[in-house]
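As a warm-up, study this chain.
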Amino acid sequence: MKDTLRPISPYSWQSLQTRITLLTLCVVVLSIGSLYGLLSRQLQDDVGQMLGEQQHATVALHAREINRGLAERMLTLEKVSQLFAPAMSGSRAELQLLMNERPALPAMFNGGFFITDRQGSAIASIPLDAGRVGLNYLERDHVASALLQGKSKVSKPAIGKALQAPVVSLGVPIRDAKGQILGALVGVIDLSQPNFMDQIMSARYGKSGGYILIAKEWRQVVTATDKHRALQHLPAVGINPEVDRYLEGFEGPGLLVDPLGIRVMASAAGIPGPICRCSLCRKPARTRLAS
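Now compare it with the structure written out below.
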């Protein structure tokens, strides 16, 4: 008896048509999957770039505001210093009385302001009960700059001698009519108390972001959204290449690892800083505002 040959169903696994169809389907599915992954990554890159640009624009705007506030205070000190020059040769009581007549300065400097003699010792102060009179400040960089070099300078962030709180001070020279340096006028910003930078630094960027103001020269935090970070030192050169990149002048969005080890998106913008108008001091120092 002869075996009866049955035709192979086109839907059978043995059918060449079925195998080709399944192979084509697999290729199509794999292609669609690859295309989805490519589009997803492209979308993530585009969104990340857009968010980074937005973040940097915000940081740059705040940097300009801080620079404007510092420049305004430095200019005010330089102008007021001219009023104190004639009184430097008189009695300290007269000098103190003249300082009491400067209502604009306490509004600008929440830590008060004071005058030193040519040796760097405070001889008059607002407020008077701050305990500054008699203390010598010559080792502080802003006072030394004003007295020894005749240059206005924003100080290194430090603990104030009298206030015992984190401060940043602005120092300018007091000159007589011949240009001789008679002393220094110093305005103090108490970082632990409400100050002109708080409107920016106390803000949040999104739900978890914040701001940090960094003194590039000393790799030190000036103030931040988290005030506990004031005066913190950044890692030494070479420990965190991403931080080094920002402090070397990079401006714009990027990724770095925060102190908790979390990778975050950050942006930085330089703050030129107040500029002394003398011929020796045309190039400003720079600080950084990071988000």
